[in-house]
Amino acid sequence: MNENQEDQQEISPELENQARADEAEIEQEEPFDPETADGDTLLAKYRELEDELSETRERVLRTAADAENFKKRLQREKEEQTRYANESLVRELLPVIDNLERALEHSEVGADQGGLLEGLNMTLKGFLDTLTRFGCTSVEAAGKLFDPNFHEAVSQEESADHEPNTVLRELQKGYMLKERLLRPVMVLVSKRTSQQDNATR
Q: What is the pLDDT of residues 43-73, one digit of tens each?
């Protein structure tokens, strides 16, 4: 089914009901004979037809606007679907990247595993480069004020060196796919120290 057919299905019931109402109204009217009608009757009939024409024009314009809006909505939905077609695949890759980063973080460089660490680094870089090409980027959080739109607070820690609700550390990376948040950053957030609380009492 093409878009024109879909538009007709959306609009035709309204037009059909209006057409039936117009037909019923016409059937109830008395026959009009311009040959025998006087001037006042002709003028009244002219104004009546003018009003009907204006109403018909407005209905046509509304119908055309509805059809155009419907086509635009379909186009937006199609573009949105294409833009985020890889979302499910990217989500599946995030835990793999987490595991690689944890493995590198807890590994100790030694003569017997230098090659292994280099391989892990190359694998991780390959994954991250691929995600970047698809429009997936990490969310920066450390040192910024906590933002519930992008951050998920896991715990709080007293800190005299930071403003309250400052992200002290990222516990798990968050990612964006273009303008859409795939996963919030899990963070450790600062709070006022006990001494600061006592000083303000």
A: 777 788 888 898 999 999 999 898 888 988 8
Q: Is residue 187 part of a domain?
A: yes
Residues 16-51: pLDDT tens digits? 666 676 666 655 555 656 666 676 777 777 788 888
pTM over 0.90: no
Q: How far apart are CA 107 and CA 147, in angstroms?
A: 32
Reduced DSSP (H G I as helix, E B as strand, rest coil) percent helix, strand, coil of the chain, to 5 = 60, 15, 25
- Asked if residue 111 and residue 43 are part of one domain, the reply reads no
DSSP 166: B
Mean pLDDT over all residues of the chain?
81
Report the run of H or E that residue 157 belongs to, with start and end: strand 151-158
On whether both 54 and 69 belong to a single domain, the answer is yes
For residue 51, the model assigns a pLDDT of 87
Burial class (CB in 10 A: 0-12, 13-18, 19+), 12: exposed
Statement to judge: residues 117 and 44 lie in one domain: no
Count the residues in the chain: 201
Which amino acid would we find at residue 171?
L
Task: Mark whether 101 and 64 lie in a shared domain.
Answer: no
